[in-house]
């Protein structure tokens, strides 16, 4: 396997893990209103951030 093919394989594996974890978070953390406490220092909270990709130019203002 060439170096380029190996890197592409690693990229695909990382992409797959990323998409699977996003699906799991969306499925299992969307409903709870309270944070899920994991020990004294770690809380899991489901937050949606649409960021600039979906918010910029969203209202079609003339100043943009």
Task: Describe what this molecule looks like in 3D.
With 64 residues, the chain is mostly helical. It has one domain. The protein contains two helices and two strands. It has helices at residues 3-29, 51-55; strands at residues 36-38, 42-44. The protein has a two-stranded antiparallel ribbon with strand order 1-2. A hairpin with a 3-residue loop joins strand 1 and strand 2 (42-44). The longest helix has 27 residues, at 3-29. The protein is extended, with a radius of gyration of 18 Å. The protein starts with a helix and ends in a 9-residue tail after the last helix.
Termini separation comes to 48 Å
In round numbers, the mean pLDDT is 78
Largest sheet: 2 strands, antiparallel
Order of strands in the sheet with the most strands? 1-2
When the domains are counted, the total is 1
Q: Report the order of strands and helices.
A: HEEH
Structural classification: mainly alpha
Alpha-carbon Rg, integer? 18 Å
Q: Based on CA inertia axes, which overall geometry fits?
A: extended
| Percentage of β-strand residues | 5-15%
């Amino acid at each position: 396997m060439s170096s380029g093919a190996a890197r592409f394989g690693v990229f695909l594996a990382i992409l797959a893990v990323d998409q699977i974890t996003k699906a799991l978070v969306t499925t299992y953390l969307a409903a709870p209103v309270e944070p899920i406490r994991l020990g004294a220092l770690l809380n899991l909270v489901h937050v949606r951030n649409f960021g600039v990709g979906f918010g910029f130019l969203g209202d079609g203002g003339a100043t943009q």
